[in-house]
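Please fill in the sequence for the structure shown.

STRUCTURE ENCODING:
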């Protein structure tokens, strides 16, 4: 099945044990032991009125009513909240579960373990498609199950011209349009579409080779139907494809499945490159190729995070055209807060370079586990007196150094628009 960005409602536990506010602590303890849960929603009818944790129960006398010890005005999650948002909320508040409510009515419960299990499947924040890791895992499993697979690799032609002459804002919108067009043409029961990287996409399919080739042709037609938004000149997208696999007739013996998947990806990728080389004309055309490139991007020079007791302070230095811009932010050294401080310091440094009337603010900072790495996603609000605030998102895959990744992700997000503003 195609992996998509999931919401709390899709992952939450629905058969949640509950207790009424008039019940006693002894009743709650018995229910917790029978249900093997770490928290009990307290409901009056179907409406959530509080939450009981094991800590609450351990400190209370058995005969006391639940209403006297429960946590009121507890944090909750809406059914359509993205899983990454639920993770951020639980991590920042130091809690391990959230009741899920709909118009005050309890409909489920979600734990941080539920969220981490799902977020371990990395998703591209721009397109909502899975990254290549999900494709590799699924391909290996299909091979182990004895199924034949084919890999379709799709590479946009000359897409660098879009970013160079039209800017990354237009480029990102076109990438999203391409992803949507490709996703509309696949069958989730047989195909897994992923963003492989940059302007490259890949499709894992269990279709026989002739059907896989037909799917690849339809994907090329889908890309060719996409044009740059009005006002940015005449531009038609095109792509090159390569296909590997889909031809085996006998059972595999003593196969290293991961190596087989790597070979299929390599072959399909090389075929798409060869197809691009062999084309006799430039498939991507910019109406004004002589247009000057966008101004130079801001560059990250230094990131420092210091700890003093329970407090953390982040300092970030940026450079642009020989000028230095510095920002700093201070806050509690709890959970992912220091990483957010780095993002805030980065955006603060960017704000110093903005013309009068423009403002920038760090909106969301998310850490999405993708073992052995972490995807750091930073969303920045950028606007001016004559331009309503818009959201820009940057993402960086990193190892243990989350702080530097947060600065790079924030700067990546802002640079998409900054070149036009400072022009």
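FILLED IN BY: designer on duty
SEQUENCE:
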């Amino acid at each position: 099945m195609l992996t998509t960005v999931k919401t709390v409602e899709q992952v939450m536990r629905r058969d949640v044990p509950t207790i009424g506010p008039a019940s006693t602590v002894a009743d709650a303890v018995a229910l917790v032991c029978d249900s093997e849960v770490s928290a009990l929603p307290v409901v009056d009818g179907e409406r959530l009125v509080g939450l009981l944790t094991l800590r609450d129960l351990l400190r209370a006398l058995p005969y006391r009513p639940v209403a006297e010890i429960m946590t009121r005005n507890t944090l909750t999650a809406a059914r359509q909240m993205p899983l990454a948002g639920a993770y951020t909320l639980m991590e920042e508040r130091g809690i391990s579960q959230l009741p899920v409510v709909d118009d005050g009515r309890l409909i489920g419960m979600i734990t941080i373990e539920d969220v981490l299990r799902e977020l371990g499947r990395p998703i591209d924040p721009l397109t909502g498609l899975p990254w290549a890791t999900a494709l590799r895992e699924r391909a290996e499993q299909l091979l182990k199950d004895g199924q034949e697979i084919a890999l379709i690799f799709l590479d946009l032609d000359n897409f660098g011209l879009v970013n160079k002459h039209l800017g990354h804002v237009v480029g990102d919108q076109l990438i999203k349009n391409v992803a949507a067009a490709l996703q509309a043409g696949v069958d989730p029961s047989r195909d897994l579409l992923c963003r492989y990287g940059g302007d490259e996409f890949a499709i894992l399919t269990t279709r026989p080779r002739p059907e896989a080739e037909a799917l690849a042709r339809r994907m090329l037609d889908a890309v060719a139907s996409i044009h740059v938004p009005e006002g940015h000149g005449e531009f038609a997208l095109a792509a090159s494809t390569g296909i590997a696999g889909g031809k085996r007739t006998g059972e595999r013996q003593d196969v290293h499945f991961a190596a087989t998947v790597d070979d299929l990806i390599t072959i399909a990728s090389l075929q798409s490159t060869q197809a691009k080389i062999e084309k006799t004309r430039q498939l991507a055309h910019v109406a004004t190729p002589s247009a000057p490139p966008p101004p130079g991007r801001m560059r990250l020079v230094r990131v420092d995070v210091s700890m003093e007791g329970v407090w953390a302070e982040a300092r970030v230095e940026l450079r642009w055209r020989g000028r230095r811009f510095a920002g700093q932010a201070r806050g509690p050294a709890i959970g992912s807060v220091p990483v957010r401080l780095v993002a805030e310091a980065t955006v603060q440094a960017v704000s110093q370079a903005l013309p009068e009337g423009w403002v920038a603010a760090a909106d969301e900072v998310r850490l999405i586990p993708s073992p052995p790495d972490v995807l750091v996603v930073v969303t920045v609000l950028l606007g001016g007196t004559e331009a309503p605030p818009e959201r820009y998102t940057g993402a960086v895959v990193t190892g243990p150094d989350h702080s530097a990744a947060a600065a790079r992700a924030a700067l990546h997000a802002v640079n998409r628009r900054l070149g036009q503003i400072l022009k």
